[in-house]
Write a structure and sequence with these properties.
This is HORMA domain-containing protein. It comes from Sphagnum troendelagicum. It holds the Pfam family HORMA. The protein has about 200 residues and is α+β, with helices and mostly antiparallel strands. The chain contains five helices and seven strands, in the order H-E-E-H-H-E-E-H-E-H-E-E. Strand 3 and strand 4 form a beta hairpin.
Amino acid sequence: MDCDNNNRPGVEHGHVADLVCEFLEVAVHLLLCVREIYPPELFERRRYLNLPVQWARHPELRDYIHSAVTNLKIWIQQGVVEKVAVIFVDNSNQTTALEKFIFDFSLKQLIRSSLQPNEMEFALRGFLLKLSVCEPLLRPLPPDCSWELIAYVTNLSRDTIKKEQFWIPSEHKGWQQPFTITPIKSMQSELLDMQLYVEHPGG
């Protein structure tokens, strides 16, 4: 096995978009398990980036998450996706968000960099590790809550979004009350900057 990375080709821009989509898909599954939105028996253990992660067993849920993230790929490549949020909502009041996990990222428009694939994978692996142990930092969620997946995009018309069909334009509002931010992890690299943090109500 050749362990010398000096002559290996760097990460290509398209590969970063693929990797970000894979990461987001795994992160959504992991969050649904960590925050106990569904019973634990509805998840199974798998490995991603040589890390044990939780994966939903239900085919329709898996297909929904995969389709949602896959349909974002072209916009991620174009650099128009600013954030992706997993939002947990109180079912007794659908307008009340309880918690928002925000993936705030910037995919830089370089064709290729000297960054090696294993370096990028190692960085994203760190985010999943943090997610898997973040529960002590958070408040318990009520037993009856649901979740939403929201993408924050720029420079896209509502007509363009409608043509995509999977994603629905939304006038999603911010917090109507003071909120706090709990940082989880951040990274900076030649091709990708990312911050992961949690927003929840309360000053």
